[in-house]
Amino acid sequence: MEREYKLLIVDDESEILNTYKEYFAKRDFQVEVASNGIEGLEKLIHGEFDVAIVDIQMPKMNGIEMIRLARKEGVDTDMVILTGHGDRDDAVAAINLGVSAWFEKPSIEMSKLKDKVVDIAQVISLTEVERILSAIPNGEQRDRL
Amino acid sequence: MNVYYFDANALYKFYRGQIKGEKGSLNIRRLASTSHPIQISPLTQLEYVSILMKDFRKGYLKKGDLQKLIKRLRRDVSIVGRGTARPFYAVSVPDGTYKQAESILLVHGTKFSIGSNDALHLAFVKKYSASTPITIVTSDQSMIYICKEIDVIHYDPENASP
To answer: Which chain B residues are within 8 Å of A138, Cβ to Cβ?
Structure first.
């Protein structure tokens, strides 16, 4: 990873929170957790996270509602959601809110989840940025800056 | 700890990396990869995005790449005090910055070739330096001359080592 990314995990199951937190922290992520949508929303608004992993089914406020309110507050953190098996309605609602990816909770492979989170957090690698910008003629840049 | 300020030129060089025959980019990367906090202003971000837009209009950038480059910038910029590992942090415009920029233009614009944006960058740094010394990163000779005149610390990446 180019740097330490800041990750929020929102889930009402403490076992999942602890497992995910430990997994990502060991892989150089800066991890915070929230155990419901209200707490998650508060942290999203004030925490400047690169990515949030959000469970859909939660008491108090579900994941979709939390993301909707976060977007309304101007939070542009990328979201990865965890859905129940075959829960297509949730997935469609999430896509409409600009969610970056979703995983079905019962069959998550942690390495795939981690790779996806890194991809999303990075947006585009610095090497790729360099490749794109260095293709622009040198004189052009001198004229503009 | 030294605090550095990037204008759009420095920011662009950071992202473009080392180009053969061009000085300065490597030093800029070194600055941003150390523990020095790199400060940028809303003007820096705006100018950088404007440059990318111009590249797009001229056909040098594809739409998808343009979107990714802008999103990457947003992802790299932190807001002061939130404790992330983002390489840049944004500062807001202090009161009186535009007035100060106008003064810089009026006093130095007759001798040195500077534009309004250059004057604004200098005014930002001058304002912020009142509480904590800030070093502006620039290789523009007119800016460097004015820095000396108005007691702003500068770092020229093309002619120095960090």
So the answer is: 19, 21-22
For chains A and B, count residue pairs whose Cβ atoms are closer than 8 Å.
69
**A30 and B19: CB-CB below 8 Å?**
no
Q: Measure Cα distances from A83 to A100, A107, B49 in Å.
A: 13, 10, 36
Backbone angles phi, psi at B94, to 5 degrees: -70, 155
Classify B58 as helix, strand or coil: coil
Q: pTM of the entire structure?
A: 0.85
pLDDT for A83-111, tens place per residue? 876 677 777 888 888 888 888 888 889 99
Q: Read off the pLDDT band of A31 (50, 70, 90).
A: very high
The dihedral through the CA atoms of B56, B78, A71, B46 has a sign that is negative
Which residue, among B96, B114, B95, has the nearest Cα to B106 in the 3D structure?
B114
Closest Cα partner for B121 from B29, B55, B47, B24?
A: B47
User: What gap in Å lies between CA B18 and CA B100, rounded to an integer?
Assistant: 34
Please, which residues have CB within 8 angstroms of residue A77's CB and are 6 or more apart in sequence? A8, A44, A48, A49, A50, A51, A52, A70
CB contact under 8 A, A129 and B75: no
First to last CA, chain A: 31
Q: Is the ipTM of this complex over 0.90?
A: no
Measured between alpha carbons, how far is residue B78 from residues A37, A139, B39, B72, B84 in Å? Answer: 24, 31, 10, 12, 7
Q: What sign has the CA pseudo-torsion A134, A135, A136, A139?
A: positive
> For residue B66, what is the DSSP state?
H
Contact (Cβ atoms closer than 8 angstroms) between residue B38 and residue B15: no
